[in-house]
Amino acid sequence: MPEAKAPLRVLLADDHVVVRHGLKLLIDDQPDMTVIAEAGDGETAIRRALELKPDVIVMDISMPGMNGLTATRKLRELQPGAAIVTLTRHTDDAYLQELLRAGVTGYVLKQSAPTELLQAIRAAAAGGQYLDSALTARVTAAFVGKQRKTESQPRAAVSEREAEVLRLIASGYSNKEIASRLSLSVKTIEAHKANAMRKLDLNGRIDIV
Questions:
Q1: What distance in Å separates the CA atoms of residue 140 and residue 188, rounded to the nearest whole number?
Q2: Burial class (CB in 10 A: 0-12, 13-18, 19+), 43
Q3: Distance CA 148, CA 132 (A)
Q4: Per-residue model confidence (pLDDT) at position 1
Q5: Global pTM exceeds 0.85
Q6: pLDDT at position 4, please?
Q7: DSSP assignment, residue 130?
Q8: Are 62 and 15 in contact (CB under 8 A)?
Q9: Per residue in 63-75, pLDDT tens?
Q10: DSSP 26-65
Q11: Which positions of the chain have pLDDT values less than 70?
Q12: Close Cβ partners of 35 (under 8 Å, ≥ 6 residues apart)
């Protein structure tokens, strides 16, 4: 018989004990994942993530001390390969854009069905990205509206290398990983990304995706 695959190791970061308890029950009830640690603030989340190296970190935004956005940015610096799923009540685009720029691989609303979080955890662990279905339609509509608005405007041509960098970013790779993959410096990757985004009038990771 083939050896059973180890369950995904999940770290929960949320300052509400009751919420963490409910999330732990939900996750531990899945045969392919388990909660290995919990944190009530951003600093503790970073420390536990560096110690335990979980497969996925589920991070709330609003926490005392270091909030989830700051913790996400710091953790991506210290552990670039970390898969972070944001779990929040915030539905506005500003939070979404900032967290995608910070490097989250999933964005799920607390008011959505539990299956959204489970799908996001699995997607993040597999190296993909996940956006809550409640936000997908709105983001798509905004992108289509923006595309229609600008389609009559001339655009500078994107080079083959710039297009390649955008494709890798959309696939979930970090700047450091792309630099290694293309045998270029991180600064060069950042320059290609900035040039391509300026030419295509893109504002963040969700536009690239």
A1: 30
A2: middle
A3: 24
A4: 46
A5: no
A6: 64
A7: E
A8: yes
A9: 888 888 899 999 9
A10: HHHTSTTEEEEEEESSHHHHHHHHHHH--SEEEE-S--SS
A11: 1-4, 137-156, 205-206, 209
A12: 10, 11, 12, 23, 24, 27, 28
Give CA–CA dist 33/7, Å, rounded. Answer: 4
Radius of gyration for the chain, computed over Cα atoms and rounded to the nearest angstrom: 18
Provide the token pair at 47. Answer: 């420390």
At which residue do the structure tokens 């690239």 appear?
Answer: 208
DSSP bridge pairs for 39? 13
Q: Quick check: helix, strand or coil at residue 185?
A: coil
First to last CA, the chain: 40
Edge-to-edge strand ranges of the sheet holding 130-131: 33-39, 8-13, 56-59, 84-88, 106-109, 130-131
Amino acid symbol at 74? K
Instruction: Write the CB contacts of 40 (distance below 8 Å, at least 6 apart in sequence).
Output: 13, 14, 15, 17, 20, 63, 64
Which one-letter amino acid corresponds to residue 91?
T
* Predicted local confidence at residue 198, as pLDDT: 84
| Spatial distance between the Cα atoms of 121 and 102, rounded to a whole number of angstroms | 18
3-state helix, strand, coil in the chain (%, to 5): 55, 15, 35
> Which is it for strands 84-88 and 56-59: parallel, antiparallel or unpaired?
parallel
**Cα 27 from Cα 202, distance rounded (Å):** 36
